[in-house]
Amino acid sequence: MFNLQKKSGYVLCLVLMLAGCTVMAGAQQALVIKPGARVAVVGDSITEQKLYSRFIEMYLLACRPDLHLHVMQYGWGGEAAGGFAYRMNNDLLPYKPDVVTTCYGMNDGGYRAYEPGIGKGYQSNMRNIVTGLKKTGALVIVGSPGAVDSKYFVRGNVEQAAKVYNDSLAHLRDLAKTVADENGMPFANVHDALIDAMAKAKAAYGDDYAVCGYDGVHPPADGHLVMAYAFLKAMGFDGNLGLITVNMNGEATASEGHTILSANAGKVELESSRYPFCFFGGEKDASGTRSMLPYVPFNQDLNRLTLVVKGLDTEQGKVTWDTTSKVFPRAELEKGINLAAEFLDNPFVPAFRKVEGAVIKKEAFETTMIKGIINPLWNVVNASNHDPVIAPIAAMPIRQHYDELYEKLHQEVVAQIVPVKHTLVIEGVK
Asked: pTM for the complete prediction?
């Protein structure tokens, strides 16, 4: 788990990284996660929902299995930045994370209009978190707070309550970025990503479509996909998950993570160990991820499995991916189409769902482990007045036991990421 040796070259990553790069920026920063890294996803009850953390973990493990990463979520309902700063030494640091994502501010803002005292306390606590982690050699993806829903957030029936509190959260966003810039850490602009997606989605689906939660605060799956997007972009992923090139004369090639098993006149059989990210839910279902795809560039920026077709002698070509077919202009096929975006129901979906089930089980265990077992350990140690006999018994054997249970569940997730065999057939359309 997190007790492995630190990977060499990690300090170099910090030096080369673009300080303060925001998720909304157009330029692509370098990948800041190194092979074998231990990633911790930290935050309040929105993190403890175990949705955006699940999406991040599934992307890191199934879409980039070549990195061989570990992921753990540390969500704690009702927590503000100061709460995590207080428990960080006990709950997180013993696991020696290489990368930590933070998402605080929703509770720090007090659910009221911004005032300088709120910002001062939030910034101070965020500095304590980031500087403390920086001393250990960890990279911190400093996330801004999210947003509240423009319809469903109501506090005291105050008119424009959501507008007022989103303005407060925007102030905290700016302070989080300042802390990131001060420490040379990447910044994930979760707030603006949600605000932008919410405006576009509600314009299309209607104001009843919840992006930041039916309670106004806790997003359904659609909003969590936006949050995952913000963090994954801040990590520097370029979204290139594979390139498959098919020549109609019979030849075919594939990039790393994809193996050509056979190729014959436009029919190609492949085996892939690198999955595209797969989505679920109805086209207008806020509790699913599919409905959000038109309003967040997840597929464009993070989820490209590209098919290029050469030598097609007709103006159009029909692509059949296992059992689903679509027709594309020849020019598009020559340039390359994104299979992950064009075929949402694709051969990877069943395998992806199995991985998701294993991740759900593991992350549920993590919440029980951290909140119910690991966090209370410091009370036992403190109550014993750091007795040299009781303290080691209370801490190390218990941590080691739960470390082993975590690793077992992690390996169960990894075991679900099996190579997927699939077939592409390209035919000319008169």
From this structure: 0.91
